[in-house]
Amino acid sequence: MKTWQATKAKQHFSQIIDAVKIEPQLVIRRGNPVGVVISYEDYLNSKTLHEKKSLENWLYELKSINEIEGEMTEIERVDREQPDWE
User: Fold this and answer.
1) Which of 2, 40, 61, 77 has a CA between 20 and 30 Å from the CA of residue 51?
2) 34 in any annotated domain
3) CB under 8 Å to 1, separation ≥6 — which residues?
């Protein structure tokens, strides 16, 4: 990742824009990282990886899994005695 001082980044912004096609660009001010410039494609990939799913999305996914798997039946355990809960 290429590192740019903030003042240089301002002066060479078009270079930074071209460089993000190859790799992210780190901007530093007073020795501390303050930002990263990334390509739009990287941004979209990152956003979808880190997005929180809503309950609606989880339920939709579960519904589609259920449609593929069908009704799931409970399998009786045979590796040990079954407790008598009654």
Assistant:
1) 2
2) yes
3) 23, 24, 25, 26, 36
